[in-house]
Amino acid sequence: MRRFLLLTVFMFCSVAYVNEVLAMEITRAVMLSNSCAACHGTDGRSPGAIPSINGKSTQFLVQALHDFQDGKRPATVMGRHATGYSDEEIQLIADFFSSRP
């Protein structure tokens, strides 16, 4: 009986902790940045020919995305992605990737 009680308490605490961690980590910036992972890699670290964007300055990333939006920076795919983001979303994405090592 004591073992069962300890196991129950442990499981409850584990589930509560995991839920708290997940709630804290899934921010709007993380959700927006997930779409970048397919090409730029997890956390912006590209595994291939697509440029890595992790650790780039916020200013650089904001400017690059605005340039893609305005057609000032040639691209095949990024122009279409960037036009879908508001200025606030671009700032969130840039802040997220600039904070990645």
Could you characterize the architecture of this molecule?
By secondary structure, the protein is an all-alpha fold. It has a domain at 29-98: Cytochrome c-like domain (Cytochrome Bc1 Complex, Chain D, domain 2), CATH 1.10.760. The protein has helices at 2-25, 28-34, 37-40, 58-70, 78-83, 87-98. The chain starts with a helix and ends with a helix. 15% of the residues are buried.
User: What do we call the CATH homologous superfamily of the domain at 29-98?
Assistant: Cytochrome c-like domain
One letter per element, helices H and strands E, the order comes to HHHHHH
Provide the CATH architecture of the domain at 29-98.
Answer: Orthogonal Bundle
Question: What is the share of helical residues?
Answer: 55-70%
Q: What is the helix tally?
A: 6
Give the overall silhouette. Answer: elongated
Structural class by sheet pairing and helices: mainly alpha
Biggest sheet layout:
none
How far apart, in Å, are the first and last alpha carbons? 48 Å
Poorly predicted runs: none
> What's the CATH class label of the domain at 29-98?
Mainly Alpha
Proportion of residues in extended strands: under 5%
Q: What is the number of strand segments?
A: 0
Integer average pLDDT: 85
CATH topology (fold) name of the domain at 29-98: Cytochrome Bc1 Complex, Chain D, domain 2
